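WARN no homologs supplied; continuing
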Amino acid sequence: MKKILLSLTCFALAYNYSNLQAQSLVDNSLLISRDITNGTARFKAMGGVNTALGGDISSVSGNPAGLGFFGQSDVSLSVNYLNNNNKSNFFGQSTSQGQGKFGLENLGIVIHYPTHNDPDYGWQNFNVGLSIDKQNNFNDHLKYSGTNNQNSLVHSYTDIMEDDDIFAKDFWNSYLVDEGNTGRYFPTVLEADPKNQQMDLLTTGYKYNTNVSFGANYGNKLYIGARFGFISYKYDSKATFLEKGWTKTAGEIKADNPTTDFANPNDPAYKYTDISYDLTDINDLTLKGTGVNFGLGAIFKPTWDWNIGINISTPTWTEVQEDSNIETLVDYYKDENTTTSLHPGYGSKNYGQSYDYAIISPWKTSFGLTKFFGRGLLSTEIEYLNYSSIKYREIVTEPDYAFESEVNGNINNTFKGNFNFKIGGELLITDQLAARAGFNLIGSPYKGDTQPDYIASLGLGYVLTKSLYVDLAAMQYKQFNYNHSPYSFSSWNSPIPTAEVKNTRTNVVLTLGAKF
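OK structure emitted
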């Protein structure tokens, strides 16, 4: 899957704000609705299959019918180490930035309540499970830098100034723009002069799902379950873009505006000509919220060696609080080697805001089959989600239903329904040691995009004692190639600066468990 990502400059959010906000909410709706993986190291090693396979604490957050397979109580803790690495190329300069972090992946317990009925008839058990499960990890760090001799971030600002008087009056005080003979704004920075540009984009956060689940076993043939899910969600993005360059001389500015104040030695603007500047664009975003959902599942065992499973999850209603900090700073120096400011710097207004809304994720339905062999098993499942059915809801006192309709229309035009396919297997090498492998093919949610993502996984399991066990899984995500642009413009005949990024992602999960 290859996409072009654009980091909006801070004042781009001030210009034509409702349209940009509507598109931002479309992106956020997918971020909030999408789950990557969940469960223990055992099920992760097998590609995340759980629809037609039970007896693992992953069933608490997956198919709750799997709880009916427990013949005794179980408790486990899963921790992980996620490593993200981004290799980027920006104007011929290569940068590699890695980020590794430990975290809690899953914590769960299942309490077994046997009925002591005839094993071939009636209810065999009623089991209760509780788990905290990480469904998404947003930790990532992208950095790139290079020398741009084609354009400046100021070009993007001048486009915005043409359509936004508030911003125009504000950024005019930076002394990095002037108004030409045609009445259009133009940069007073040297466009074709080499400018050092640096992007630092750090994202952190998580999506945890706390589930209370119930499962039962009828005659060792039919397993049913239900779960109640509670979502907690936080996403932080901190984007800082820095540009170092030189302003034009008074004569160069006068060529575009014969009456410019920059050519008047008695005007304050004159001292901002032919000097070095540092332009910093800051765009911080925080999304946090909570949500609820419900799920039902069933597994039928027609023969000892086959399981047939189905699992249905309702949409998740997630209430989101969005907070942003958006501003620009400019400092001026005698030359690029000086660290003491030459003149008073510029600081923009903070164009951030706080905004509350709700996102309703799509229904999730999965169907699975499991085949058991003498020393192992093979399980597969297919899952369907219609991302175009995601809904945005205003939850303020006076909802803007026209804007709500606009956002939902954009969601419908951007996303589509997709299938996810999972397959995994387990082989008992000895009575204590098991080897596992799996593959998770993830369909694209975007209309017009047919390239899927995938996660390949391997793992081992070892029974330490009659009650203690340990599982290990390693997952390699598909290399994600994309283009990232720090800013954009439309009124200038110059190419948009673009960094080529290659992202690799590896997750290692360790589970320690005890049966009792």
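The chain is about 10% helix and 55% strand.
OK
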